[in-house]
Amino acid sequence: MAHIPSTPPPTDPNPQAWERLQETFDGWAREGTAALMREGHSHLGLTIASELPAGSSDTILDLSCGEGWFTRHLASEVVPDGQVIGVDLSPGMIEVASEDSDNPGNVRFEVANAEELPFEDKSIDHIASIESFYYFPNQVAAGHEMFRVLKPGGTFFVAMHFFLENPWSHQWRTYLDVSMHCKGTEQYNTLFRACGFIDVGDQRIREEGDLPQEIDGKWFTTLEQLKNFREEGALLISGRRPPEEE
Q: What are 53-72's pLDDT values in tens digits?
């Protein structure tokens, strides 16, 4: 029997909120901030890539791909015979991603927001998303879209540092002029289960390595803050769409 999500998908995307996000990320693309994301997020990407139960010919969606570094990694290292699609609501980010000379032949990039994905039902094998889910204006709508486009049995992996149990990330709101959701681990587990996913679970990802000798003072004002932030780690939520027979 087909699994039916316990909450209906919302039908009211907030265009103003998405427009504000687009303006912000377009600005980051122009300023070259996108290139810095790889340095800060690479440990999250490598963890997800190592846990994805992907076959070499599967199709993966990189949700909110930014400048595409993780999209390229998945295409070359995880599904070399498959396809990876990077989507981002920012045309500026997609332009940067599309023009990268290191793009493998099995990647493509599209402008899209997470509440209205331009893919057919049950067309994606796996979804990965790094440091973006807390930006989505309607997270429930995004969760339902993820469920819609995943194939039966397909998996999702969502990683983020900005969540309730890591208070050292909460000051990011001071520097980012956009709305951000600050939910706790159990709230996210509940959200994804309500969207229809099964085997929903969580883990922490903690960055290894020495602390830098100094910090720029923007995201953290002291090395002690950065140390505490790393010790709390990032939240990784994962789950799967039930097989049809369930």
A: 999 999 999 999 999 999 99
